[in-house]
Amino acid sequence: MRTVREPAREIPVVAEADVIVVGGGVAGMMAALAAARAGASTLLIERYGFLGGTATAGLMTSFNGFRNEHAPNHVQTVRGLAQELVDRLLAAGGACAHTQHGYFGPMKPGESPYAVSFDPEVLKQVGLEMLQEAGVRLMLHTLFADALVQGREIQAILVENKSGRQAILGQVYVDATGDGDLCARAGARYEIATGADQRLMRMTLMYRVAGLPDPAADERRLWINGITTKWGPGVGGVDGSNAEDLTRAEIEANRALREHLAKLREQYPQATLVAAAPMIGIRETRRIVGLYTISEEDVQSGRPQPDSIAVSSNPVPNYYGQRVFLEHLGFEIPYRCLVPADLDNVLLAGRCISACQPAFQSARSMAPNMAISQASGAAAALCVRSGRRPADLDVPKLQMQLEAAGAVVRVPPEERAQVE
Ligand SMILES: Cc1cc2nc3c(=O)[nH]c(=O)nc-3n(C[C@H](O)[C@H](O)[C@H](O)COP(=O)(O)OP(=O)(O)OC[C@H]3O[C@@H](n4cnc5c(N)ncnc54)[C@H](O)[C@@H]3O)c2cc1C
Fold first, then answer.
1. Rounded distance between C-alpha atoms, residue 24 and residue 316, angstroms
2. Looking at residue 187, what DSSP letter applies?
3. Which of 246, 276, 306 is the last residue in one of the domains?
4. Is 5 within the bounds of a domain?
5. How confident is the model at residue 93 (pLDDT cuts 50, 70, 90)?
6. Most buried residue, 51, 184, 222, 385, by CB count within 10 Å?
């Protein structure tokens, strides 16, 4: 490949904070909220002009995994900030139980069924309100570009935006980019299913349509406020951490959308396109290698983890091509999966945590994803306060703080005993 040499230059330092969260999807939102509420000065950097990531830009409008989809599902395994967000959305008319996953009851504050449908426009507003109330500083329209690393520590990160190239300094950085951009640029090891024996999950262009009748009582449909969200064209064999693949996927999916709509109009002639997602939905890219990697055995057995900080009870949607439901209440997420093996002042949030592919496929869903990310933000703040590296954090203290904030950090032992 031909190359050019970029001259070295001085970069202005435009911001400093205790905790820098890179990425403002649901993971970044929860991590920033938790860090700020724990008293850390917190800055969140997001490339778009709004929050939500896949949930808003990707129009993936269902939070799945508040509990097991099938029995045993009597325990809600995600609460804390994720439930608070649902309650705020509910109060703002932006959340409801939907029938896509067969739950037909009404919703009440403080409790969630397996899946919750939300209005992405309301999520943008409510998310912004919650972060601003907590005192999180936002840098929108700002792309993380690179990390300056010395030894195992990030010294500064470099961003690009309309003002040019800028530097930002933090004590602890949270990688909530979904794709693990921060860690990958900082040289940390990662796994990605592009080898001979593994395949990345497909990308899907989601879209929203009006003009369909309200769903019948027993009809499975993702619906809220008169609008239905549809899974549109999918594209396989593409890698969301590769710009060429991303371009090809967007073009292919957007070209195929017209056909999808034509088919839908055969059934519903009044169907009107409200929006195609501004960004094709990317399910899977890098998983950063952490101090521990959740194994298939962990997922299947649901065995207790001493440093558990959250629970994923979501099914594994694509386990060797099949949707596999857990036969227990959920598997526990060890804190060590949030700590990159190769970097000393970074934590992972959201879908780039250290997990084997089936564990990732379960925990990437937004309810467990938000629970994990609440723990990342709280841990980052605790690191700053205690002057410890993430690898040396007092985990029992973190678990206590999360529980005090209403989070479920482990499967309740008495419930586990009943199921076994
Ligand atoms: C088609 C599809 C269907 C799905 N179905 C469901 C479902 O039914 N229910 C469910 O719960 N989950 C579902 N998921 C999974 C779920 O939506 C995602 O795993 C989750 O939203 C990921 O959240 P995140 O915050 O970890 O990452 P992302 O949503 O990817 O957020 C990352 C954020 O970081 C920003 N960012 C990235 N790189 C940079 C950078 N370099 N600089 C600055 N900002 C950056 C992005 O703009 C984005 O806002 C689905 C996903 C897809 C794609």
1. 25
2. T
3. 276
4. no
5. very high
6. 51
Question: Quick check: CB of 204 below 6 Å from ligand 1?
Answer: yes
Q: Which two tokens stand for residue 383?
A: 């690191």
Instruction: Compute CA distances 73 → 82, 280, 302, 378, whole Å.
Output: 18, 32, 14, 27
Indicate whether 246 and 297 sit together in one domain: no
pLDDT in the model for residue 215: 86
pLDDT in tens, 133-158: 999 999 999 999 999 999 999 999 99
Query: Measuring CA to CA, how many Å separate 103 from each of 23, 56, 95?
Result: 32, 23, 14
Looking at per-residue pLDDT, the higher value among 166 and 99 belongs to 166
| 266 and 308 fall within a common domain | no
337 in a structural domain: yes
Global model pTM greater than 0.85: yes
Asked if residues 154 and 121 have their Cβ atoms less than 8 Å apart, the reply is no
**CA angle at 356 for the pair 407 and 76, rounded to the nearest 5°:** 25
Question: 378 Cβ partners below 8 Å, 6+ apart?
Answer: 34, 35, 38, 398, 401, 402, 405
Residue 154 sits in which domain range?
13-196+284-419
* Cβ(54) – ligand 1 distance below 6 Å: yes
Same domain, 357 and 318: yes
Whether 64 is in the pocket of ligand 1, judged by its Cβ within 6 Å, is: yes
**Number of domains comprising the chain:** 2
CB 33 within 8 A of CB 377: yes
Look up residue 223 and give its amino acid: W
pLDDT at position 420 is 67
Atom of ligand 1 nearest to the CA of 142: 43
Report pLDDT for 268.
95
